[in-house]
Amino acid sequence: MKSAQLTAIGPAEKTVKCIDVSDPGKPGKGEVLVDIVACSINPADILMIEGNYASVPETPCALGIEGAGTVVAVGPEVSGLKAGDKVMSLARTNWVQQIRDKAEAFVRLPAEVELSQAAMLKVNVATAHLMLTRYVPLSKGDWVIQDAANSGVGVDLIRLAHADGLRTVNIVRRSELIEPLKQLGADVVVVDGPDLAQRVAKENGGAQIKLGIDAVGGSAIGRLTDCVGDGGTVVNYGLLSGKPCEINAFNFVFRDITVTGFWLAKLMRGMQFGEIQAMYAQLAQRLVDGTIHVDIEASYPLDKIADAMAHAKRESRGGKIQLRPNG
Amino acid sequence: MKSAQLTAIGPAEKTVKCIDVSDPGKPGKGEVLVDIVACSINPADILMIEGNYASVPETPCALGIEGAGTVVAVGPEVSGLKAGDKVMSLARTNWVQQIRDKAEAFVRLPAEVELSQAAMLKVNVATAHLMLTRYVPLSKGDWVIQDAANSGVGVDLIRLAHADGLRTVNIVRRSELIEPLKQLGADVVVVDGPDLAQRVAKENGGAQIKLGIDAVGGSAIGRLTDCVGDGGTVVNYGLLSGKPCEINAFNFVFRDITVTGFWLAKLMRGMQFGEIQAMYAQLAQRLVDGTIHVDIEASYPLDKIADAMAHAKRESRGGKIQLRPNG
User: How many Å lie between the alpha carbon of A177 and the closest alpha carbon of chain B?
Assistant: First the structure.
């Protein structure tokens, strides 16, 4: 069967190759065999492939943080999963036609879910959900601010917050993004730049903002932090600017603001399987009810992996790039 | 009686004047009258006088964050204080010969305490104590790192940590400070600069550092944050560099480090009087037992306030500058 593997750290479009590997074989005790139907290509995949992630993998190695598919067979002593079930994979080796793994590597999804959408649940949707729920207790009507608001996580966050009655201030870099984000449920959208805090206060009526979410670092997190109310929390989850976070010390000392970081892989290592399963069941329901929907710009088979990588690296896209390992 | 007051926001040596004000009169119900014996001049006093503090006071106004003295008289319904008791003042108007205020504006001190030392307890010693105890649970043998280690707070922190069996890494800017700080109980003293984290790890045997304490901001807090272990906390309490805190986003996202701020005035507003009293009773005992001792470089009467201000603003001093309102 086919597997897209990393041959050496380097430019993704050159170093990821589609190779033939042996079939995984029948599931053993407590194991499940899954056909991977759809995989998303994430920024974190690219960071890892190009050597810019928290850890640099030894090559050659399998790849793919996200994937969703259908159970083909279950081994003895597996409960809760059966052939034909739709599942999301918790493995990080999903760019492959089939995976055989322990039952706890898969989360069962509702039958109504589209697998191409389910293949985008694990990272971005969970990131948006966990950042909205793990740091600051928020009630209906409370305000959250984020930058990179048109990113994958940013859009999911707007949709989830809106569905839960939270209000969002969204920082973007181009004014043509204002209307599209408002269409998705964004309450306020502002273009980054000088006097951001004053402009945000004008737009949201000066309401206190309890939580800030930053994907950029650099001076952008500093401007975003200026917008958050006294005693608020700012969560940094991205490294988009590649620059050190520049935050006015006044915000720490006199405004009692806390800055902390979010990393999905680490947070999930600290969660029990039952908790992970319950979270994704809840989020999968958001796919079914239409709260969350992500546009897909293109899908590629595994043997066009170089094209898929090059496409995923383009700055301006209208949607996600996916792999379809089984066509 | 004499009072040193701020006439207008501006250079401290020009804008603080000694003026004659009316005597405070006899204490009423629940009130206490105190002769102020010694007052310290703090960086926060200067910041406020020169318009660089969290809030800018309306002028003219009384001044002086710290002061200690002797109870002269108590009004009806005051318990726990009597004439002759030594007290530390919680008021922020201590540069004066006498204060009349409610009993909860004063903390009773042990009779053995030197008032000139007690006049330095309120801000720096409490700041060091609260930063060591409020953010991260620390046990004997645990490591803490701080910059500006030769500052007033820095030296108090070394002494308190050493007395409690904690170990400190101390960042300084000049190598001639290494030996004097080691004499005070510092475990490791390093000069700030490139590769700080590697040099610190070499000096402390690679032991994990749970708490970082930064008074500088700018790029210094970034280097200090690099030294703290995964999951650690960095507390920023000073604005010495006047520059935005520059912290690598990697430390937030992948190393789960939290940065927060400390402001004594705000933290104490959230404490009950009983808690404040108990804290200062414990810290006053550290003066009596010699754990804490601060050198005094010079003392001035109130009518030499301009000289006192100019002296307090000098960068290199061998100790605190104090006022002695009653000679």
Answer: 26
